[in-house]
TrEMBL record:
This is Dihydrolipoamide dehydrogenase. Disulfide bonds join C43-C48. InterPro entries: FAD/NAD-bd_sf, FAD/NAD-binding_dom, FAD/NAD-linked_Rdtase_dimer_sf, Pyr_nuc-diS_OxRdtase, Pyr_nucl-diS_OxRdtase_dimer. Its cofactor is FAD.
Length: 479
């Protein structure tokens, strides 16, 4: 067994771990970044990037198939599944390659390959070949798909995001389990690429949507495009000669249907369970998760920090990077530990229409404002720019506090949500109130005019000015 002694050990070379390593390596050479599988990160290899590449192909197919709305006849759209998947893999590899290269350019003494486990609060055993003694430790081990036992009945036809993007060709049919973020993004994309898809859910949840009106609107919209059962009762999942047979009932109606594959998108599990974390000497909650401070990322009063998806809090790429920076800075400066900057919550789901959420959710706003808040709303169905480009579906709901007029949060299902969510998140970051947001410039005709309509509606409901539709001589048509 090799022995190493370092100031800081970072476990996991994903986004959070690499950022933590970078921060630590600025102040000490006695640092090691440990990776148990392969370099390249979840985001680039099997997450954000390949999923968006598949969605890009699907969106193109969908736009072509619906061009007749504009009097443009594309003359039949043909989808070459092999070429679709080839581009996904090639472009994915282009994103992965520089990440791997930057890892390989690190000093050899700073890199260690092997699965890490805690022997005690300061000692790790890595891949049964090296024992690392570290004064401080950052756990950045990410997460992996959580697969309910029943779905394992699909045997060799069970896929998750880790292997779907390696398909050589598109299959004819896929049963998608989990109408969460991954299931909706990939399910809709596969459907638009000509794959027969049915999405099975449990308990009625949809994406990460928290606002009931947005959820209902989104559900009806997705259902008009592909079968989606958010509350299906699945009694059996069975591998047969023909593929995967699923027996299920919806509203008492029994059905059996066979698919080529079953995609499990049923949530993700933090990679804590294989760390022998019980040896680390830190407090664990009743699910065995480290108890930590979300501002310092420190576990109790210890020398151990967490960062990224492993802490199961805001499992998104930009948050993993922020957490890596905070945890890395604190591991570097320990025992001096500072609260880091946590940004306004922001999430975007790349369905069509997109789903976005910023700031506090409706329930959180109600708690924070003790019930003294109002909700402004706009439908994009008659919004000028959205109609012009044929993307006039969706709803934006904006939340503001009575008295102060402070803008608290928003949820959206609609066109250009990825961009609008940024404007709204930046407004919250600047602590703007609704009147200040309305004083910002709005061009014509743009989708952002819909945001202004929602804000005016909110302003009126907060009794702070005219509502939507009143006193807007300067507004153009369809705003
Ligand atoms: C399909 C999909 C699509 C996504 N799309 C988006 C998106 O569009 N936008 C967005 O913001 N987020 C998206 N995400 C989420 C985003 O990818 C993650 O939040 C982010 O990649 C997490 O980074 P991380 O560093 O915490 O984990 P990872 O990048 O997973 O890194 C963890 C590393 O730790 C290693 N490891 C684990 N255990 C050990 C051990 N015991 N010893 C040594 N090494 C270990 C792993 O091998 C891995 O390399 C998506 C995720 C998925 C799955
Ligand atoms: N655009 C993005 O930012 C993006 C994209 C993909 C993933 N992500 C990240 O990855 C995380 C994980 O995504 P996810 O979609 O796996 O998780 P999720 O929590 O969003 O969704 C899981 C879904 O599976 C359902 N489910 C659970 N067990 C089930 C069962 N037995 N049968 C049917 N349905 C079942 C849940 O009710 C839920 O709707 C997200 O929370 C997000 O942070 C982000």
């Amino acid at each position: 067994m090799n022995k190493r002694e370092v100031d800081v050990a970072v476990i996991g070379a994903g986004t959070a771990g690499m950022v933590a390593y970078r921060q630590v390596s600025r102040v000490t050479d006695r640092v090691v970044l440990i990776e148990g599988n392969q370099y390249g990160t979840t985001c680039a290899r099997v997450g954000c990037m390949p999923s968006k590449l598949l969605i890009a192909a699907a969106d193109r197919a969908h736009e072509m198939a619906h061009a007749e709305l504009f009097g443009v006849a594309p003359g039949g759209v043909s989808i070459d599944g092999r070429r679709v998947m080839e581009r996904v893999r090639n472009e994915r590899d282009r994103f992965v390659e520089p990440v791997v290269r930057s890892m390989q350019s690190l000093p050899e003494a700073h890199r260690l390959m092997g699965h890490a486990r805690f022997l005690d609060a300061h000692r790790l055993v890595v891949g049964d070949h090296t024992e690392v003694t570290a004064e401080r430790i950052v756990i950045a081990t990410g997460s992996r798909p959580a697969i309910p036992g029943q779905l394992k009945g699909a045997k060799d036809r069970l896929v998750v995001n880790d292997n779907l993007f390696d398909w050589e060709d598109l299959p004819d049919s896929v049963a998608v389990f989990g109408p969460g973020v991954i299931g909706l993004e990939l399910g809709q994309a596969l459907s638009r690429l000509g794959v027969r898809v049915r999405v099975f859910g449990r308990g009625g949840s949809l994406g990460s949507i928290q606002d009931g009106r947005i959820r209902d609107y989104a559900l009806a919209t997705f259902r008009s495009e592909f079968p989606l059962e958010p509350g299906a009762e699945v009694s059996e999942v069975r591998r047969t000669d023909d593929g995967v047979e699923i027996a299920y009932s919806v509203d008492g109606r029994q059905a059996r249907e066979t698919f080529d594959y079953l995609l499990a998108a049923t949530g993700r599990r933090p990679n804590v369970d294989q760390l022998d974390i019980q040896n680390a000497g830190i407090d664990l909650d009743d699910r065995g998760m480290p108890v930590f401070d979300p501002y310092t990322l420190r576990c109790g009063e210890s020398h151990i920090f967490v960062a990224g998806d492993v802490d199961n809090d805001r499992p998104l790429l930009h948050e993993a990077a922020d957490e890596g920076r905070i945890a890395g800075d604190n591991a570097a400066s320990w025992p001096e530990v500072k609260a880091g900057l946590r940004k306004t919550p922001l999430s975007v789901v790349f369905t069509d229409p997109q789903i976005a959420r910023v700031g506090l959710t409706l329930d959180q706003v109600s708690d924070a404002c003790k019930g003294c808040f109002a909700v402004g709303e706009v439908s994009f169905e008659n919004q000028g720019r959205s109609r012009v480009i044929g993307r006039n579906r969706g709803l934006l709901r904006v939340y503001g506090e009575h008295g102060s007029g402070r803008f608290m949060g928003a949820e959206m299902f609609g066109p250009a949500a990825e961009h609008i969510a940024h404007l709204l998140a930046w407004s919250i970051e600047q602590r703007m109130n609704v009147a200040e947001m309305l004083a910002m410039p709005f061009y014509h005709p743009v989708i952002e005019e819909g945001v202004r309509t929602a804000l005016k509606d909110l302003n009126g409901k907060l009794n702070m000015g005219p509502g939507a539709g009143e006193d807007c001589m300067e507004c153009g048509p369809g705003t």
